[in-house]
Amino acid sequence: MPLFSVTMNDGLVDREQLERKQETNLSAKEHLLVKPGDIAYNTMRMWQGAFGLADREGLVSPAYVVLKPRADVDPLYASYLFKTPRMSYLFWAYSYGLTDDRLRLYPDDFMRIPVSIPALPVQMRTARLLSEWDQAISATERLFSLQTDLHKKILADLTVGRQRLPGFESEWASVRLGAIGGTYGGLSGKSREDFGHGKPFVPYANIFANSKIDLTALDLVDVRKGEAQNACRYGDIFFTASSETPEELGTASVLLEEVEELYLNSFCVGFRLHNFSVLLPEFARFLFRGPALRRSLDQIAQGYTRFNLSKPQLMKLHIHVPAIEEQRRIAALLDTSERQVLAHAEQISSLKSEKFALMQRLLGGKRGTPTDELLEAESA
Known about the structure:
By secondary structure, the chain is of the alpha+beta class. Helix content is about 35%, strand content about 20%.
């Protein structure tokens, strides 16, 4: 019989599936039995959503509580109800402990929580509707995962020439970054009072999160007329130059839009091409995000507790690039692929927002009867 653990994100999961396996000295007979339709919850994490609906028979630790819905309560409906903000708040309010990380929701206190639910047929229709939404979300997440894996593969293959597009056979050229451009620094001499107003600048998070600078996600800084600050322009490549881990160092993003006035944050370094005859910014966007270049950038990270990107070492870095027309074709293909990934991500976000709004409408409820009139609880 499987042994389940209760997780905050995935509900009841087979303990064998957990990356970090939990050890237990308890025998099977010392565990609690859960049957399909039962809900098990973690007394210390119920207010954070640590509960799960059993879809098959299994065992759980006696540290959990097993709820057995009565005949007039649909288990799936109850599991959705428990995910609403109001119920999360009530689980927190009825828990005991000096600090949030020590709160416990004991069975007797759980039974005192007021809840209001409709008649069983309405519960079942509501649960079925929300379940259909979950199925749509799961299907889209699978498509997102498949498209993401495909994008990573073609990104890795096309940015090193392991896979060539039809019609291109010429050798790729090896060039040193310092031979095709130069670096510049970000904002300097700024205090806390200078931020939040003034001119736009590219924050660190924008560069780290996007292969192409998102001009809708800029911050503001006060830059006075005549002040010596480096302004950004189309085609500039930005690298994260300071990080707590070497893996995050050297993450690149490219400015692919014309801007009137834009600056760079002080924790990143800018690289400006002398011209676009050797490297296209559109191709650079993907080249510097490819795993081969990422490994090269990892090797020039400097530091122990905090890592920094050395500009002289960056300028010594060699890159391999195809002819300009092949760069253009590769960039267009990868741009389409990335757009498909982002479209799936946006669709998932939209579906989740719609589901949340639906849950608020269907499960909002008002103060009602204590839970012990609806559920029975079993605990060790």
